[in-house]
Design a protein that fits this description.
252 residues, 8 helices, Rossmann fold, 15% strand, alpha/beta
Length: 252
């Protein structure tokens, strides 16, 4: 018996990275899963069609999100958990960040999270459910050349705590994960750097962890995401959980 047997879960950003890991974890624990992403994922075609469906969706388009949720719930038969790893990152000196830069990253990371959370609400209002947002270590302690990204992740953390208060009366639990992990985003950031900066970037990645083994992959998040999605975390809401090997050690 899996801890998510009989559960219905939707993952926004399920094509790669932490989202792909969430889909894998939820399926492995017995859930029926729908993945929303702006592009197909490499594993989409190999997953069992009776338990999984992938849909193309731009989470910055509220109407598209609402439509996909309706289709997803029709396919699954209900909605118990929503996970929102979808997002982007960027590097730029704070003094060079443009209005366009800030608006783009906020639209995806903050508005996208808001639209997905709001789309879940009517399906969870009467019976409860779990929402798992994605903050970041960057939203807690800051990162060099990522002021706009850090601002969005701080906003997601604050949104998570506030929505958890608003929706607790409906037994909707809203928590967030603040990870520091290796995903394809790390490769894209490295590729965008000048050659002279790549060596120092590589050295900085994975050296802040206290636990041995350096920067871990997205699959390290799977067990915690499955726990949050299921009944094992039924008494937890409004929390931002650092999964980063001990980089951030904070109490409530």
């Amino acid at each position: 018996m899996g801890m998510l047997d009989g559960k219905f879960a939707l993952v926004a950003g399920g094509a790669s990275g932490a989202g792909e890991a969430a889909v894998d974890a939820f399926l492995a624990e017995g859930a029926k899963v729908v993945s929303l992403d702006i592009q197909p994922g490499p594993k989409d075609g190999s997953r069992p069609p009776e338990h999984f469906r992938a849909m193309t969706c731009d989470i910055t388009d509220k109407q598209a999100v609402d439509t996909c949720f309706a289709q997803a719930v029709q396919f699954m038969g209900g909605l118990d958990a929503v996970c929102v790893p979808a997002g982007i990152t960027a590097r730029k000196l704070a003094e060079d960040i443009s209005e366009e830069d800030m608006r783009r990253i906020f639209e995806i990371n903050v508005l996208g999270t808001m639209f997905v959370n709001q789309a879940a609400f009517p399906y969870m209002k009467d019976k409860g459910g779990s929402i798992i947002n994605f903050a970041s270590v960057s939203g807690i302690r800051g990162q060099v050349m990522r002021a706009h990204y850090c601002a969005t992740k701080g906003a997601v953390a604050a949104w998570t705590r506030a929505v958890a208060m608003d929706w607790a009366r409906y037994n909707i639990r809203v928590n967030a994960i603040a990870p520091m992990i290796y995903t394809p985003i790390v490769d894209r950031v490295r590729a965008a750097l000048p050659e002279s900066e790549r060596e120092s970037f590589e050295k900085s990645i994975g050296q802040a962890q206290r636990l041995p083994g350096g920067l871990r992959g997205a699959d390290s998040l799977g067990p915690t995401m499955a726990l949050l999605a299921g009944d094992g975390a039924s008494y937890m809401t409004g929390q931002v959980l650092s999964l980063d090997g001990g980089v951030c050690m904070l109490g409530s």
